[in-house]
Design a protein that fits this description.
The structure holds 2 protein chains of 2 kinds.
Chain A: H1 2-35, H2 40-45, H3 57-64, H4 68-100, H5 104-111, H6 122-131, H7 138-162, H8 166-174, H9 179-190, H10 192-208, H11 211-216, H12 225-235, H13 240-260, H14 262-275
Chain B: H1 6-37, E1 40-41, E2 49-50, H2 54-60, H3 63-95, H4 101-113, H5 116-127, H6 133-140, H7 157-183, H8 186-194, H9 199-210, H10 212-227, H11 231-237, H12 248-258, H13 262-292
Antiparallel strand pairs in B: 1-2
The chains are: A mainly alpha, B mainly alpha.
Amino acid sequence: MNRPLKSTVEKTVRYFFLVVVAAISLYPFVWVVISSLKDNNEIYGHPFALTMHPIWTHYAEAWQGADVSRSFFNSLTVCLLALLIMLMITTMASYILVRVWPNRFFKTYFSLGIMIPIHALLIPAVLIFKFLHMQNNLFSLVLIYVAWQISFSMFIINGYMQNIPVELDEAAEIDGCTKTQTFFKVILPVCGPGIATAATLAFLNCWNDLLLGLVLISSISKRTMTMAISALQGSYATNYGLLCAGFVIAIIPVVMMYLLFQKQVVSGMTAGAVKG
Amino acid sequence: MKKTKKRDIGTIIGFLFPAVVLYSVFMILPLLMTCYYSFTEWNGITAKVFVGAANYADMLHDRKFWQTLQNTLILVTFSLIFQISFGLLIAYLLYIKTKGAKFFRTAYFLPVVIAPVAIGLMFSLFYNSEIGVFNKILESIGLGILKTNWLSNPKTILGAVMAPQIWQYIGLYITIFLGAFQSVSGDIVESAQIDGANKSQTFWHIIIPDIRNFVFISMILCITGSLKSFDHAWIMTKGGPGVRSAYLGVYMYKTSFVNSDFGYGSSLSIIIVVLSLIFSQVLSHINDRFADK
């Protein structure tokens, strides 16, 4: 008799707890979105209320002001370009090391990068790009993002390549394909899901990076999105609604990406723990 | 694997070359340069002076170094306590036949993908003494006396800087552990229950040992992640006042790029690298010891 009651109570407590944790995870963002539509008086007077008079112009203003739009496109260009180059060369290298010439030295060599904190690269990066006459150049960010993301992407793509049956290569060889042709026509097309996982993770890391941008980029017009976010505080110190609107604009791409490619994002971010 | 043919050598070199070059020039070379610089005294302009281990010796009586090291280790400790234990607890609640587990996981993981600097900005709004949500909440639940200026009160500043970071990544560990629980075979859980084990016995004696690897790797992720911290502290307080709320990463950045002390800055980065390596090696070693038993 007592059993169902006990389990109902247990269930209720469990759900209550889970809902509270979900609220703690999500409410801060909800608050910022609501506040982005309010003026200072309303944020101050009724911080937790919905607003009756949403100020949508905050978004237009935040987008145009403080170079947010330019930073947004700077980040987008840098990240996409880095992603394209990185995925191409990493997949090529991974194909060689997994399916053509499994060389232990190179495998270990490429895996070292996973352990290197970005702090260890900062000073030399500044000097190397100075030497290459690429100071304050967005392409320098592309190059270093590529190098920084190779190790982990290779870890993910290697894992994926290992599971492709050898018969595919053999069949291609019998049909007279060279290794290059086998890669582009047979292996690359079936690696899609592995590449997608590596891509989402690398995009997140690059989009969210602040340190490399801070040390390599000096002019305002070349700022990346994360640098613009840290500048928002100074620009809109007195207009919290605008500040919140800027914040929302800055996080939209990753939130969209997360909701659209949740499976890849989650498997990319947990790959280190799940496969390691 | 068949022996490589001669005509493939061109492909091998061509395919490996771009990755090897970019990775060597922009990852490995910088690491080696940092190692070398850590043994020099250098402001980036005048000539480098080789000083041996002097930078490392200086650390021993550099108060700021010990303060930031201590802050970093406090962060490591609290991250381990909160992220790993809450991660395990919440993942377990999701794992035991919970409807809507997918929705909850989506919600918990969302903060993980957002830029740390954005999270820092958001929390500095919450801590704000004018519009700050935290003070309003305290007031509304009758704890108005606890109201403070979170980011300038020396008693609360470090906690205020650490909290957002710990909050942000709990979802990562929930997700890792949920995956881990789901990988435990239902058979062994069932057979344990048939043998008369209750829920908590099953959890501690069957499930936890089975996912030990995940727990250890999560601890490594958690520690190395905390050692690398920079963004949250940088946007909220710039590590100040002084280095009161700075981690090693922040101190390294300030030393190198604010004070132009490249030599000492490099040795601080090497300390971060070495600490990460030591912690992960020790933990993997302990994990292997368990595996032997």
